[in-house]
Specification:
Number of helices of chain B: 19
Number of strands of chain A: 5
Helix content of chain B: 25-40%
Strand content of chain A: 15-25%
Strand order of the largest sheet of chain A: 2-1-5-3-4
Helix content of chain A: 25-40%
Oligomer: heterodimer
CATH class of one domain in chain B: Alpha Beta
Largest interface: A-B, 56 and 58 residues
Radius of gyration of chain B: 27 Å
Strand content of chain B: 15-25%
Structural class of chain A: alpha+beta
Distance between the termini of chain A: 45 Å
Largest sheet of chain B: 7 strands, mixed
CATH architecture of the largest domain in chain A: Roll
Largest sheet of chain A: 5 strands, mixed
CATH topology of the largest domain in chain A: Ubiquitin-like (UB roll)
Shape of chain B: globular
Distance between the termini of chain B: 64 Å
Strand order of the largest sheet of chain B: 3-7-1-14-11-12-13
Chain lengths: 160, 757
C-alpha cells in the first residue's frame, strides 16, 4: 500500500505516493530524480547519501521516505545559492582539489555544510570529527579538510 | 610552460560538487528493469540441478538466466585479452562454482525488491567438491584442481624465473646474509561507487552499455567476443566514475548478465552491486608470501638476492600472471644487485578473486625488500637512509622492464626527505623507552613504472580538432577515474597549441566516437595518452602554422604561437590570432584542421621515499601514524594539486593495508567474513595523519609529455614498509607481514619482554 507524503525538497513542494519500505535515498534518486545523492553502501556506513533533513545531516539510506512528511530536505542540488552562484563549500572543494572521483563529494559537502551551520569556525579536529562518518577513498582527507577550513574562513569574512 | 605545471580548475569537478555529474548508476531509461545476481553458498561445487521455475512465476519477474541459458564461451575476465598478463578461464555462468559468492543465476524484474525476492526462489542443488583456501593447501599433491585450463595443478601459469648474474657466487662473497619470510593480507580497493551497469538494445541489434569501468574498449571487446557481435554493435559509455584503483579493469559477471537480460526481456536493464557484492564479487589485492634472502658486504653493498613469491589469485586468474610477474621482477631493482635469482608463482584457491589493484604486485614484494633492508642496516651498523642511498638505483641501471633508467630520482627523494625531517638528528635523539606511548621513525622507498611494458606493448591515442573560433577539442578514450586525467591531457594540448586552458575541451567516454584506448591503468594516462595528445596537438600546430604562414607570407618555421596568437618571430607586430587564421572569410569555410597522435611507449619509472612517524601504545597495541612526509620524483608535474591528491589518497590506502584492512575468508568454508565497511576498517578523517607532500622534478623522462611520468600507483607502495620500519624503531619488534594488528603488537611485546627477562 502506497502512502501519500508531502515534503519540501530543495525549496520545492512534492506530493509523493510511496511504498512504506522505500528509503529516502531511493525516493530522492528514483522518484524525484535527484541523483546527486549517492548510494555507496545503503546501510549507513559510508555517508555518501548525506542530506539535510530539517537542517540536520542524515544518512538518507537510513530514513524511510514515509517518515519525511512535512519536512524540509536539502540535497547537493539544492545547496547552490543561484544557478551561477555556488555555495562556498562547493567553490572551495573545486579550488583545493578536495574532489577526486567525486562519489563521496556530495555527502561530504552536505555534512560540512551542516557542520559550518552549527560551528562556523571549527578547528581541524572538529572538522575531522564532523566528517568522521563520510568515507572518502581517494583523497586521504588532506585536501578535504583544507577545503572546509578555507570555506569557513571565506564565509566568516564574507559575513555570512 | 604556461599551462603545464599550474593547478588549473579541473574540468570534471563542477559536476561533482553540484551533483550534476552523471555516473553509470544515475542513468534512468524508460521501461528499465532491475537485475540481481544469485550467488553461491558454497566455495567449490558442481551444480547438479538449478531450477528457476518458481522465480519465473513470481509476478514482476521478467527473466531468469542460469548456466543453461547463456553462451558458453571461455573468456578473459580482464582486459588486454591475449596478453600474458591475464588469464582466459571464465564463463559468464559455469556448471561449477569456484568460490563462495560466485554468481550462479541472474534475474530481471520490475523492481529491485522483486528481483531480490526472486533470488530466493531459484533452487540450486550442489555437489560439493573439496575446497582449498590457502596456497599451501592448493599446492599440496592431493589438492583438488580448480581449473582444467590451469598450467599445472593449481598453478595459474608457468612460474616466472628471473636470473641476473650468479647468485651463488654473490652469496659466497657476502659478509652478512639475511633471510626472511614475509606475508601480505587481502586488502580490497573499496572504491566508493559499487559496480554498476545499464544495458539497452535497439532495433538494429545494437547494444549500448553504461558502465563504471576503467577500460571501456576492453568491455566492448570482450562483450562483442562473448556475445558474438561485431564491434559496430556494441557501444560502451562511461562519463564519470566513482573510483576503480585498478580493479575496474576487469569484467565482473554483471556486464554479460545485464546485456543478456536486456536482450531477453527487450527492456533496458540496470544492475548494481550491493556493497557486500562489491567485496564478494569484486577484486582484491593478491595475498602474497615472499621468501627473501640477501647477501651484503660489510660496507653495505648488496651482493646477492634470491626470492620466491607465491601470489594467491583466488578462484580466477584475472591479472594473476601480470601481478606475479611485475611484483617478482620488481625485486631486480630499487636497490642495485648484480646477482639475482627470483621465482614467482601464482596459485588458484577457492577464495574471492584477486585482480589488478594500485601497486600491482609491487606493494607486496617491496614491503619485504624494504623491511629486510632496514634489518640489514641495523645489523651492519649503517644508517637506514645511508644504506638505501648506497644501493639506490640510478641512471643507466637496468630497470625491471629491461631498459635503462633515466636520472637519479630515488637518491633525490631520499636526500630531500632526510633533510626535510632532520633524519640525522632523529636517529641521534634520546629514546623514552619506559613510557606507554613509544614513538618511532621509519623510511620506505619505491619505484614504479608508467605503462605495463614489457608485459604489454601499450598504445596511447588522441585526436585533436581545431574549431573555427580557434578553440580546440581533444578526443580521448582514456577514462576519468577521478584522478583529473582529462584535465592533465587538456593542459598538455593547451600548452602545445599555445592556447589558454579554457579553450580546450575534452570528449571522452564513448567507444563509438573517441579513438581506441587500452584503459586507464598502470599509471600511464598522463605519460602515454598525454604524449599522444601532445603529438596530435603538434600536428594541429604544424597545419595551423602552415596556414598562418600563407596568410602572413612567411615560412611556417619563422612563426611562434602563444596565448591564442601567431606572430612572426622577432617581429611581434606581424601577427594573426588563431581565430582569424582558422575562421571563415569571404564565403570560404573555415579550415579543417585535425591532428592524430599515437604513442607506443616503453616505460618510465617514478620514484619515492616516504618518511613516517608512528606512535605505538604498548598498553593497547594500537599503532597510530602521526605524520607522513612523502617525497615523490615524477618528472614534469602537470597539475601539482592533482598530483599531490594522488599521493595523499595512496598513502591513505597504504596506511589501511598496513594497519587495519584485511578482507577475511573463513578457512573452513571459504565464506567472506567482513564484506562491509563496518568490519572492513579503512582509515577515515580522524585516522589520517597530516601529510606533507613534496614533489620533485629532477629526473624527467623524455618518453613522457614535457618529461612527465606516472604517479597513480606510486604512493601506495613505500608507505607500508616505512610504517613497519617506524614500528621497529618505536618498540624494537620487526613485523614481516601486514596488516599489523594491535593483538599482534601486544603478543610480540609480551614475547619480547619474556625473552629478554
Amino acid at each position: 500500500m502506497k502512502r501519500l507524503v508531502e515534503v519540501t525538497i530543495n525549496g520545492e513542494r512534492h506530493a509523493l505516493a510511496l511504498e512504506p519500505y522505500r528509503s529516502l535515498l531511493d525516493v530522492l534518486r528514483n522518484e524525484v530524480g535527484l541523483t546527486g545523492t549517492k548510494k555507496g553502501c545503503d546501510v549507513g556506513d559510508c555517508g555518501a547519501c548525506t542530506v539535510l533533513l530539517d537542517g540536520k545531516p542524515v544518512n538518507s539510506c537510513l530514513v524511510l521516505g514515509v517518515e519525511v512528511g512535512g519536512c524540509e530536505i536539502v540535497t547537493i542540488e539544492g545547496l547552490q545559492r543561484a544557478p551561477d552562484r555556488l555555495h562556498p563549500l562547493q567553490e572551495s572543494f573545486m579550488q583545493h582539489g578536495a574532489a577526486q572521483c567525486g562519489f563521496c563529494t556530495p555527502g561530504l559537502i552536505m555534512m560540512a555544510s551542516a557542520l559550518l551551520a552549527e560551528n562556523p569556525q571549527p578547528t581541524e579536529d572538529e572538522i575531522r570529527f564532523g566528517i568522521a562518518g563520510n568515507i572518502c577513498r581517494c583523497t586521504g582527507y588532506t585536501k578535504v579538510v583544507t577545503a572546509i577550513q578555507a570555506a569557513a574562513k571565506g564565509m566568516a569574512e564574507g559575513g555570512k | 610552460m604556461r599551462v603545464v605545471g599550474t593547478s588549473v580548475k579541473r574540468s570534471d569537478v563542477i559536476g561533482k560538487v553540484t551533483g550534476s555529474a552523471q555516473y553509470a548508476g544515475d542513468v534512468r531509461l524508460a521501461g528499465m528493469l532491475h537485475g540481481r545476481i544469485k550467488r553461491s553458498t558454497i566455495a567449490h561445487a558442481n551444480i547438479k540441478r538449478i531450477d528457476a521455475s518458481r522465480a519465473l512465476a513470481l509476478p514482476g519477474v521478467k527473466a531468469v538466466l542460469t548456466h543453461q541459458d547463456v553462451p558458453r564461451v571461455l573468456h578473459y575476465g580482464a582486459p588486454h585479452p591475449r596478453s600474458v598478463s591475464v588469464t582466459r578461464d571464465q564463463y559468464i555462468l559455469d556448471r561449477k562454482v569456484r568460490y563462495w559468492g560466485e554468481g550462479v543465476a541472474a534475474v530481471a524484474a520490475t523492481s529491485e525488491e522483486i528481483a531480490e525476492e526472486a533470488l530466493d526462489l531459484i533452487e540450486v542443488e550442489y555437489e560439493p567438491l573439496p575446497a582449498v583456501f590457502t596456497v599451501e593447501a592448493a599446492l599440496a599433491p592431493d589438492a583438488p584442481q580448480i581449473h582444467d585450463t590451469a598450467y599445472s595443478g593449481n598453478l595459474v601459469f608457468k612460474p616466472v624465473v628471473i636470473t641476473r648474474g650468479d647468485v651463488a657466487k654473490g652469496f659466497a662473497e657476502a659478509d652478512l646474509v639475511i633471510e626472511g619470510e614475509y606475508e601480505t593480507g587481502r586488502p580490497t580497493p573499496a572504491y566508493m561507487e559499487p559496480n554498476v551497469c545499464v544495458c539497452q538494445w535497439d532495433n538494429t541489434g545494437k547494444l549500448t552499455v553504461w558502465v563504471s569501468t576503467q577500460a571501456a574498449f576492453m568491455v566492448r571487446g570482450i562483450l562483442a567476443e562473448v556475445l558474438g557481435l561485431p564491434l559496430t554493435k556494441v557501444r560502451v559509455l562511461v562519463d564519470h566514475m566513482g573510483g576503480g584503483f585498478g580493479a575496474k579493469q576487469d569484467l565482473f559477471q554483471h556486464e554479460f548478465l545485464c546485456a543478456l537480460l536486456a536482450r531477453e526481456t527487450r527492456h533496458p536493464v540496470r544492475m548494481e552491486y550491493t556493497r557486500g557484492e562489491t567485496f564478494v564479487g569484486g577484486r582484491s589485492r593478491h595475498p602474497c608470501k615472499i621468501w627473501l634472502k640477501q647477501g651484503f658486504r660489510k660496507d653495505g653493498t648488496i651482493v646477492a638476492r634470491a626470492a620466491r613469491t607465491v601470489f594467491n589469485t583466488g578462484a580466477y586468474g584475472s591479472h594473476g600472471p601480470g601481478v606475479t610477474t611485475v611484483g617478482t621482477a620488481a625485486l631486480t631493482s630499487l636497490y642495485r644487485c648484480e646477482n639475482v635469482h627470483l621465482e614467482g608463482r601464482c596459485v588458484y584457491t577457492n577464495t574471492p578473486i584477486a585482480g589488478a589493484f594500485r601497486g600491482y604486485g609491487v606493494v607486496q614484494t617491496y614491503y619485504a625488500l624494504d623491511i629486510q633492508l632496514d634489518e640489514a642496516a641495523e645489523r651492519l651498523g649503517i644508517d637506514p637512509v645511508e644504506l638505501r642511498l648506497k644501493n639506490a638505483v640510478r641512471e643507466g641501471d637496468i630497470a625491471p622492464s629491461g631498459h635503462p633508467l633515466v636520472g637519479h630520482g630515488l637518491e633525490d627523494c631520499l636526500r630531500r626527505g632526510a633533510q626535510e625531517v632532520g633524519w640525522a638528528q632523529l636517529r641521534r635523539r634520546a629514546r623514552g623507552d619506559s613510557g606507554t606511548l613509544r614513538r618511532g621513525w621509519g623510511v620506505g622507498c619505491e619505484m614504479h613504472g608508467s605503462s605495463a611494458y614489457p608485459g604489454i606493448k601499450e598504445q596511447g591515442n588522441a585526436i585533436v580538432k581545431l574549431n573555427e573560433d580557434g578553440t580546440a577539442v581533444l578526443l580521448t578514450g582514456a577514462a576519468g577515474l577521478g584522478t583529473g586525467a582529462h584535465t592533465a591531457l587538456a593542459q598538455i594540448v593547451a600548452e602545445e597549441l599555445g592556447l589558454p586552458f579554457d579553450d580546450v575541451s575534452v570528449v571522452h567516454g564513448d567507444t563509438d566516437v573517441v579513438p581506441w584506448d587500452i584503459g586507464a591503468f598502470a599509471s600511464h594516462t598522463t605519460f602515454m595518452v598525454g604524449r599522444a595528445a601532445q603529438i596530435a596537438a603538434g600536428e594541429v600546430k604544424k597545419q595551423l602554422l602552415e596556414r598562418a604562414g600563407e596568410q602572413l607570407e612567411v615560412a611556417p618555421e619563422d612563426l611562434e604561437i602563444g596565448d591564442g596568437t601567431i606572430s612572426v618571430r622577432g617581429v611581434p607586430d606581424r601577427r594573426i590570432t588563431v581565430r582569424e587564421c582558422m575562421g571563415p572569410k569571404l564565403g570560404l569555410p573555415a579550415a579543417n584542421i585535425l591532428g592524430k597522435g599515437t604513442y607506443t611507449p616503453t616505460k618510465s619509472y617514478s620514484f619515492a621515499a616516504h618518511f613516517v612517524e608512528v606512535q605505538v601504545d604498548t598498553a593497547t597495541g594500537q599503532i597510530e601514524v602521526l605524520q607522513v612526509v612523502p617525497v615523490h620524483e615524477v618528472g614534469r608535474v602537470v597539475h601539482p594539486v592533482a598530483a599531490a591528491g594522488q599521493i595523499e589518497g595512496g598513502i591513505q590506502q597504504g596506511i589501511g593495508h598496513t594497519l587495519t584492512e584485511d578482507y577475511v575468508v573463513d578457512l573452513a568454508t571459504g565464506r567472506s567474513l567482513n564484506a562491509g565497511f563496518v568490519d572492513y576498517k579503512m582509515p577515515l578523517a580522524m585516522d589520517m595523519p597530516p601529510i606533507r607532500t613534496i614533489l620533485l622534478e629532477t629526473a624527467p623522462d623524455p618518453g613522457g609529455p614535457y618529461g612527465a611520468k606516472g604517479i597513480g600507483e606510486d604512493p601506495i607502495i613505500a608507505i607500508g614498509p616505512a610504517i613497519a620500519n617506524a614500528v621497529y624503531d618505536a618498540i624494537g619488534v620487526r613485523f614481516r607481514h601486514f596488516p599489523i594488528t594491535p593483538e599482534q603488537v601486544l603478543a610480540a611485546l609480551k614475547e619480547k619482554s619474556s625473552g629478554s627477562a
